[in-house]
């Protein structure tokens, strides 16, 4: 999708004409700067972002776009070198241009050395908290290490802001540790969860529906709140609360959205059997303001770096405290089984045996407009197909998947992936798959069969009558020509 306006222009529009006033540090003064918000001058903190992945880099570039000076720290030297050159290590719409603009304005810097940020007042921590395969708990070793490194160099009264999604009670535990190990520094922990969607993360940063700030002390919460002053001026709700409530909000939000995804998929299975149009069903319930239209698209189930990890962590927390989260556990079970359900439908379509059959997989990212393949339904199916003995050819316009298997190859075009295929699996909702004229590959495939996991294929197109087409939520449409 083309970006019509530069991030600077979009930022200006989103902030409704808000005027920024930046003054650099003078000799003998602390490296702070002020920016104008409304009729008053707000003193801004010096900011450090630790961890520049999908969350941290958006946070850093977003704050720098306001005119705030941001120092970014990450242990990955290759990533830091890329960023210094203005090359983002992730794909996100508008990020490339926004990164280059903030670098050119001298507002953002990158380093592997946390000591270079020793003059910072606010440290935003956005490191990974992956799920332990053994326990189901979120792993906190990266977070613990980052907080320890920050505490060693941070000045007195610095605030450490946890952006990472963490189990309820984590921030309280970190605060107790800092109070014990660094009492003279009076360091404070604040929870400030992110609510960004990959693929639209930069736009989401500039258009938040709410900002949640949790901390034990009012002063720490207020200092974080000031860094979001531009949003507050626009009327964005600010939820100031304690750390446990803030942590719970993040988990509960993701679990609820995962439940919506799973619910519509259950209904789509029913519609597939009894008849009806699942897209119209989703629209009919989504127009109810009590429900809303988001996350009601029938498909292969949720994936990505958040929903699978966070639902499992929430269920594990519940069991650990003797309060079983039965709805969440059911959602996890249903979502996990969805991949198996799709695999069986493909097996049935190609003759019950996948061994030796070539399958084209169009799309690898867990959703469109991102290169993230973490917990992607498409990737799960690639591995499942290979285990069944299939020969898999994939194509994705952005995402890459390295699989050490003689029967797997990632191609550089849709046509190359489809050559010799007994089935074409549309696995990610990229716009180019939606608009693709499959007549162009009719002579290349072994069989004209499409399984549309995302319900994006235009079934009114001229080429459709020559293909067998199956879609999530619909029975098989057999070729009529």
From TrEMBL:
- EC numbers, comma separated: 1.1.1.22
Record: residues binding substrate: 195-198, 250, 295-299, 303, 367
Give the record's keywords alphabetically: NAD, Oxidoreductase
Extract the InterPro entries matched here: 6-PGluconate_DH-like_C_sf, NAD(P)-bd_dom_sf, UDP-Glc/GDP-Man, UDP-Glc/GDP-Man_DH_C, UDP-Glc/GDP-Man_DH_C_sf, UDP-Glc/GDP-Man_DH_dimer, UDP-Glc/GDP-Man_DH_N, UDPglc_DH_bac
| Superkingdom to which the source organism belongs | Bacteria
PANTHER family from the UniProt entry: UDP-GLUCOSE 6-DEHYDROGENASE TUAD (PTHR43750:SF3)
- Recorded protein name is UDP-glucose 6-dehydrogenase
